[in-house]
Specification:
With about 280 residues, the chain is mostly helical. About 75% of the residues lie in helices and about 5% in strands.
Length: about 280
């Protein structure tokens, strides 16, 4: 009897670990890489251009998008916004803007919301760049990525994790090729897109308070998934179907996040390298 109970608990726990890795793993890993890559590019841009020029040309827009990302998820998860400063640089603290909010700790939905509010700038920034690629360049990542069959057949297995990222890279590469086509290079929309990607892409950073709030929500999400598996692990084919459906719908979003990672590096080279050369020439 005890062995059966322990076996059932282990099955629920192992299923939870696999689901977290497959569903949230790509999001968390890409968010982590984007965060530090954007910070590196931002710091490099400030060192080349100066803080004032960077904020005047790019930083103000990125900061506004960053704070809107927090605010939108506050509204979605019914948190009360107490202060909203989209762009209010503070020379003493280095803060460019901020959102403060309150919530009901006994409300499970609002507790889960902390996770999405914390990573809101990354989610919102990704959505903005997706829309920019559609309206400025006429590209639809859903069509391009969808044709690559980016969801592995055994999505409930950790073995699919590497294959998933390989497929994401293929999907993002196809999007990148479509963006840098010869027809786009002759259009003003392409250069507006490059500017906006650089400004918005460098806003997908998370501050320590953002990460702290996200971890609060992540703990609640983890607990909810464990309870879900305890209730459903006996039906072996139930949760894999749900996982596959979730991942299928989220893969295009992950592909766009991967694309932002590539674009940030490429656009940073296109923008910062000429500026660095000009700066060294006129010293």
């Amino acid at each position: 009897m005890i062995d059966s109970i322990l076996s059932y608990l282990w099955a629920a726990l192992s299923a939870t670990l696999v689901q977290i890795a497959v569903i949230l793993g790509p999001l968390l890993l890409l968010a982590f890489i984007l965060n530090y890559e954007a910070r590196f590019v931002q710091n490099r841009a400030i060192s080349i251009m100066g803080r004032g020029w960077y904020l005047g040309l790019f930083g103000w827009l990125g900061t506004v998008m960053h704070e809107i990302g927090h605010a939108i998820f506050c509204l979605i998860f019914f948190h009360k916004i107490t202060e909203l400063h989209l762009f209010d640089p503070d020379p003493e603290t280095g803060t460019l803007g901020y959102v403060t909010h309150t919530y009901n700790p006994s409300n499970l939905y609002q507790q889960i919301g902390n996770f999405f509010i914390g990573i809101g700038p990354i989610l919102f920034g990704t959505a903005v760049i997706y829309l920019l690629s559609y309206f400025l360049l006429g590209l639809n990542p859903f069509n391009i990525a969808g044709n690559l069959n980016i969801v592995p057949p055994q999505i409930n297995s950790l073995d699919s994790f590497a294959q998933l990222f390989l497929n994401l890279a293929r999907a993002s590469g196809s999007l990148l090729i479509g963006m840098f086509s010869w027809s786009n290079l002759s259009r003003w929309q392409f250069y507006a897109f490059i500017y906006l990607v650089f400004a918005v892409g460098n806003s997908v950073t998370l501050s320590p308070p953002d990460l702290k709030g996200a971890l609060k929500g992540f703990g609640v999400i983890l607990g909810a998934i464990i309870l879900f598996n305890l209730a459903t692990v006996w039906a072996s084919d139930f949760s894999p179907r749900i996982i596959t459906e979730i991942v299928t719908r989220g893969m295009v979003f992950y592909a766009v996040m991967f694309l932002i990672l590539l674009l940030n590096m490429l656009v940073a080279a296109l923008v910062l390298l000429p500026l660095s050369l000009l700066r060294s020439k006129f010293r």
